[in-house]
Design goal:
Keywords: Carbohydrate metabolism, Cellulose degradation, Glycosidase, Hydrolase, Polysaccharide degradation
Structural class: alpha/beta
Helix content: 25-40%
EC number: 3.2.1.21
Pfam families: Glyco_hydro_1
CATH superfamily: Glycosidases
Family: Belongs to the glycosyl hydrolase 1 family.
CATH architecture: Alpha-Beta Barrel
Shape: globular
InterPro entries: GH (IPR017853), GH_1_N_CS (IPR033132), Glyco_hydro_1 (IPR001360), Glyco_hydro_1_beta-glucosidase (IPR017736)
Length: 474
């Protein structure tokens, strides 16, 4: 694939000294099933919570749904050839639970599994390593009707599903992620309600988070029992959390948000315990009776790797004196009063501040405080408004975003972090959850009217990064 000239000051074609990544560094891109597959009712697939949520009036922008999305279910071979043209070494995709196990229980749906068998075979035929995520938010609707993730039984059902997928695909798939961003599933899905299933109960959100992690541990054991050589991990979305000032109240606000955002998952999974201060905070919301003896050893079942999704940083402050509590349902149970501070940094189309040094800080923290395991950046990317001009998309902002964050990733490696790979989010423009099709994260533009794919300048640039295994020096 040819590369664009770079008028933006970011150019891997520079012939000077380069910033090289270690040999064997795994370069990839990532997607999620409900965001790209479409074919929502084909070949035995049953509804997920996102089907129900997106078809409920007022839940998504303009009533957008994932019914068709990028039509990847029908266009998969062409999409894999596009990946090969970009030189991807790995592709991180998720399996649709309701496509493989309609209803969330019972035997596997072989027609659903056949799609993933074809996908894995196509990837391998093109020299691309499959990286399989078992859960990217598409809980079968009948399991939600039975209580969803706040119900303990859902964790067991997830382990059963994981075993079905491992039995079918484990002979060809080495890398396995159990959960993608359990914080979003728990606290956006059951706390603020802005994600499926749209429930708004802080105690349910806390229970959901715990049972997601319990399901993770049970799934690790199930996959490992089926496929002992599988490389198993989990993907968590992490944010550095800083106080807006040196005031003790702001420092405490940062402690509380860091507890809910980061330590709620890192500590049980990698240390086998909940932090004492977090437990004290959560007792405002729940008595923690859902945490049973034996849960934490399951949750902390040893892993082979850790996935980190990084997008931005949180800067927070305590509530203003006399402030009236916000009645809007919150994704921060017990810390609803904390204010999130806008620092005036450049932002993406999601209004997320661009803070590449935060990636370095996050990777160093995970390695320093939690684990010597291999770490992968399993998502990193940005949404911007793109314009097609003469059949091309010059997405300079996205290209610069990738460049800055890859430099931070390289600095982490130089600082001793065992970072082994990087997955750009996302391969394709897609259904961006409650934002529908109004936010574009893809390196490849998708015309939703005719499903045409247009590699943006960032895709061509990334292909050259992969080819050179590095960046131009600055």
């Amino acid at each position: 694939m040819s590369n664009p000239e770079s008028p933006h000051g970011v150019d891997v074609l520079d012939q000077g000294p380069a910033l090289r990544f270690p040999p064997g560094f795994l370069w990839g891109a990532a997607t999620a099933a409900y965001q790209i597959e479409g074919a929502a009712t084909e070949d035995g697939r049953s509804p997920s919570i996102w089907d129900t949520f997106s078809h409920t009036p007022g839940r998504t922008v303009a009533g957008h749904t994932g019914d068709v999305a990028c039509d990847h279910y029908h266009r998969m071979p062409d999409d894999v050839r596009l990946m090969a043209d970009l030189g991807l070494k790995s592709y991180r995709f998720s399996v649709s639970w309701p496509r493989v196990q309609p209803g969330g229980s019972g035997p596997a749906n072989q027609r659903g599994l056949d799609f993933y068998r074809r996908l894995v075979d196509e990837l391998l035929a093109n020299g691309i390593e499959p990286w399989l995520t078992l859960y990217h938010w598409d809980l079968p609707q009948p399991l939600e009707d039975a209580g969803g993730w706040p119900a303990r039984d859902t964790a067991g059902r997830f382990a059963d599903y994981a075993e079905l997928v491992a039995d079918a695909l484990g002979d060809r798939v080495t890398y396995w992620t159990t959960l993608n961003e359990p914080w979003c599933s728990a606290f956006l899905g059951y706390g603020s309600g802005v994600h499926a299933p749209g429930r708004t109960d802080g105690a349910d959100a806390v229970r959901a988070g715990h049972h997601l992690m319990l399901g993770h541990g049970l799934a690790v054991r199930a996959v490992r029992a089926s496929r002992p050589t599988a490389q198993l991990g989990v993907t968590v979305n992490l944010y550095p959390v800083d106080p807006a000032t040196d005031a003790p109240a702001d420092a405490d606000a940062a402690r509380r948000i860091d507890g809910l955002m980061n330590r709620f998952f890192l500590d049980p999974i990698l240390r086998g315990s909940y932090p004492a201060d977090l437990r004290a905070d959560l007792r405002q919301v729940t008595d923690l009776g859902h945490v049973r003896d034996g849960d934490l050893p399951i949750i902390s079942t040893p892993l082979d790797m850790v996935g980190v999704n990084y997008y931005s940083r949180h800067v927070v402050a305590a509530a203003e004196p006399g402030a009236v509590p916000d009645p809007t349902p919150s994704c921060w149970p017990g810390s609803e009063d904390v204010r999130f501070v806008d620092r005036g940094f450049p932002v993406t189309d999601m209004q997320w501040e661009i803070d590449a040094p935060g990636l370095l800080e996050t990777l160093q923290r995970v390695h320093r405080d939690y684990t010597d395991l291999p770490i992968y950046v399993t998502e990193n990317g940005s949404a911007f408004v793109d314009t097609v001009v003469d059949g091309s998309v010059d997405d300079a902002d996205r290209l610069a975003y990738f460049d800055g964050h890859l430099r931070a990733a390289h600095a982490a490696i130089e600082a001793g972090v065992p970072l082994k790979g990087y997955f750009a989010w996302s391969l394709l423009d897609n259904f961006e959850w409650s934002w529908g099709y109004t936010k574009r994260f893809g390196m490849v533009r998708v015309d939703y009217d005719n499903q045409a794919r247009i590699p943006k300048f960032s895709a061509r640039w990334y292909a050259e990064v992969i080819r050179r295994n590095g960046l131009a020096a600055q």
